[in-house]
Amino acid sequence: MDLTAADHRIPLSDGNTIPVLGLGTYSEPKLTPKGTCKTSVKIAIDTGYRHIDGAYIYKNEHEVGEAIREKMAEGKVKREDIFYCGKLWATNLEPERVRPCLERTLNVLQLDYVDLYIIEVPMAFKPGDEVYPRDENGKWLYHKSNLCATWEVECHPYFTQPKLRKFCQQHDIVIVAYSPLGTSRNPTWVNTSSPPLLKDELLNSLGKKYNKSAAQVALRFNIQRGVVVIPKSSNPHRIKENFQIFDFSLTEEEMKNVEALNKNIRLVEMLMWCDHPEYPFHEEY
């Protein structure tokens, strides 16, 4: 797979292509200063990113849209250069709610289309405008759905998803990996029993060999095996650093060694919803 900074798209089964590296835009709305996302997206586009991953529920899609449109106005990119992925939230999985939600996203972005629109989490909540519906006792209000779709999955050197990856390869499905560098250590929804990925001895030793960071090695590992990665960052230095993964490659032996780090431990467990009838992480995949 010949991937370069200028051309790092891989084919999808429908004939379209997707950049193998994207910028994740999730952040805690209450903790993130206004304009942070817009600045991050503009820096990312200037750096060479052409894949932006967002969602209406992140409450910053308007900033994503502003950044893309400004870069288009500058002549830096054309709309067709950008691959934007939006998401449908769990309270909107009823068929009649899908199109209005997509149109709302387009209106917020002020773009004519999105390149990919996926389900945020494969669990349905009570339909409506309340994002996190609960009853008067604070209990989650779940809903039954009939999902037949594709969504992003967690995938990194500590959770390599070998069985799922094999299944996807057999069916010509591209995996998009969220949390490709691990994730925050928020115990509310994250398994903190696993050690921080970026402190791993092997990843850091390979980083020293190639004059790269452990994060760059972890990202390179996934894209080298055809997995799309969407690392999130609002730090200008890290946004640029995460993009600098096309000027080196891991040897076959090094790839096997990194793959052997797999602990089959999921970091993003979302245990607050583990009693949901559709909770997906009880499944073998």
Structure commentary:
This protein has helices at 36-47, 61-74, 95-109, 162-170, 201-210, 214-224, 236-243, 252-259; strands at residues 9-11, 17-19, 23-24, 51-53, 83-88, 116-119, 124-125, 142-143, 153-154, 176-178, 228-229. The chain is an alpha/beta fold and 285 residues long. It has a four-stranded parallel β-sheet, with helices on one face. The protein has a three-stranded parallel β-sheet with strand order 9-10-11, with helices on one face. The model has no long low-confidence stretch (mean pLDDT 91).
In whole angstroms, the N-to-C terminal distance is 26 Å
Q: Tell me roughly what share of residues is in helical segments.
A: 25-40%
- Content-based structural category: alpha/beta
User: What's the multimeric state?
Assistant: single chain
- Low-confidence regions: none
Mean pLDDT across residues: 91
Tell me the number of strands.
Answer: 11
Number of discrete helical segments? 8
In short:
The chain has helices at 36-47, 61-74, 95-109, 162-170, 201-210, 214-224, 236-243, 252-259, and strands spanning 9-11, 17-19, 23-24, 51-53, 83-88, 116-119, 124-125, 142-143, 153-154, 176-178, 228-229. With 285 residues, it is an alpha/beta fold.
Key phrases:
8 helices, 285 residues, alpha/beta, four-stranded parallel sheet
Helices and strands in order, then pairings?
Elements: E1 9-11, E2 17-19, E3 23-24, H1 36-47, E4 51-53, H2 61-74, E5 83-88, H3 95-109, E6 116-119, E7 124-125, E8 142-143, E9 153-154, H4 162-170, E10 176-178, H5 201-210, H6 214-224, E11 228-229, H7 236-243, H8 252-259
Parallel strand pairs: 3-4, 4-5, 5-6, 9-10, 10-11
Antiparallel strand pairs: 1-2, 7-8
Helix pairs in contact: 1-2, 1-7, 5-6
